[in-house]
Amino acid sequence: MLVERTRETGDAICGGFLSWRTLESLARLGVAPDALGPARVTTVRVLSGSRVVETRLPRPAHGVSRHLLDTVMLKRAIDAGSAVERGVTVRGVDGLTARLDDGADLAADTLFLASGKHDVRGAARPAAARGSDPVLGLRVRIPAAPGLDALIGESIELHLFDRGYVGIVRQEDGSANCCLAVHRSALIEAGSPAALLDQLGRDHPRLGERFAYRSGSEAIDAIANVPYGWRALHGAQGLFRLGDQAGVIPSLAGEGMGIAIASGIRAGHAYLGGGAAAAPGFQQGFARATARPIRLAGLVRDAAERPALTGFALPLLRQVPGLIEIIASLTRIGHSRLDRTPS
């Protein structure tokens, strides 16, 4: 049974980037790239001040809204026989019992916890993972426009600034999905999310060119205290943590959805092979699989948020052909035999 708190499929705060490896995993589940719209991504562009570095991705990727991706995935689950309860919120977890907002309890031998960056009472991640100056996630969608198409094209862009960065990618309707990861101190200094966007547009002309297509009335979505770098190192019998509940990779790597989908596939196979008792082994194995990409993405993020380091790093990226491609490959979760596309 799948318990989903919304009655209608929304559009979660997400970078909306599917890597080539994630597309392979989705194909194994019966989801072809054509089902996810036309927003192909072939290059990565890194911008900091007046510096711009661009290179091709190892293989084509995809930009997609969570509304479309979640709609397609939910249909696949229903077609495969899943029972779905919509408009039901899990208020807390007691062992393997989910307590619902209507007062009912759902008890089972196994719980797959896929609540994303939101913690569930009774199964929350440790507060220490958030640090003293926690990271906040912001998202604004800029409507489609020919000029915006010309600026972004088939690229995923990474705009770097002090204590944060903005990722921009076009999605299936031509709009630009702009996701920010910013430390709370920078947001406090700006005064508000809208003021922060205005300030960034003034201070970074190339980013300002993209933000110029905002009408000013777009909603700015936010999520607080994102615990980048956290991994679930151990598990409990019957509890499978998936996606951000298993490991939180810095969003600039573009591998959050890749980790979510790979964790679901591997947890499903672990359960089919060993039942509820397979959960601890799955969690430890998945923590090992995500160790390198999460740690490397963390190092890249630390450098990206410091102007002094980006001033050194960007010329290096330009002088060493293929370095961005190597980093992109090393921050993907490695394929196991379970999430490869069958030959």
TrEMBL record:
It comes from Sphingomonas glacialis. SUPFAM superfamilies: FAD/NAD(P)-binding domain (SSF51905). This is FAD-binding monooxygenase. Coiled coil: none annotated.
